[in-house]
Amino acid sequence: MPYLIVGLGNPGSEYQYNRHNAGFMVVDQLAEKYKLSGPKRKFESELFEGQIGEHRVLALKPMTYMNVSGVAVRQAMDFYKIPLENIIVIHDDLDLAPGKLKTKIGGGSAGHNGLRSIDAHIDQNYKRLRFGIGHPGHRDLVSNYVLHDFSREEFTIVEPLCKTIADNFELLLSGKDSDFLSKTKVTE
Considering 20, 55, 91, 112, which one is annotated as catalytic? Predict the structure, then answer.
């Protein structure tokens, strides 16, 4: 049974390095490192296919914009008959400091519109790789903050972190979340 890896972000070059596109950045690194085939246009997304270690993977970048990501995820899930426990969603997280990672299964959307859309279309009990982007300090600033590029200083952490995530992603697929997190920890 393949794994469906979903990186959240917004399509278009103007969003490429936005904080909200952390999920897309990780999928791009996975595709490069593991020489995943694609992208091909399917499910209103860019879809990559291949192997990460012993695991068959489908990596999805929904091109529907963040707020309706769940439509693409549901289409891919139904087409490939992927169970909820084989879905990993990679998304930016305001509640974690830049470069911090956490995993969890299920939970609320915490105001993240991509997660809210996925929850509405497939349920909440999928694995999440939470990619810390920090918080701007006040909720009125959030929309502007997530739709702007990582700062130069943040990018010096984010770019190598995306590569480290890709290097160790097989641990996550094997259910070794604590090993994955210890190997991808950003040293300060």
Answer: 20
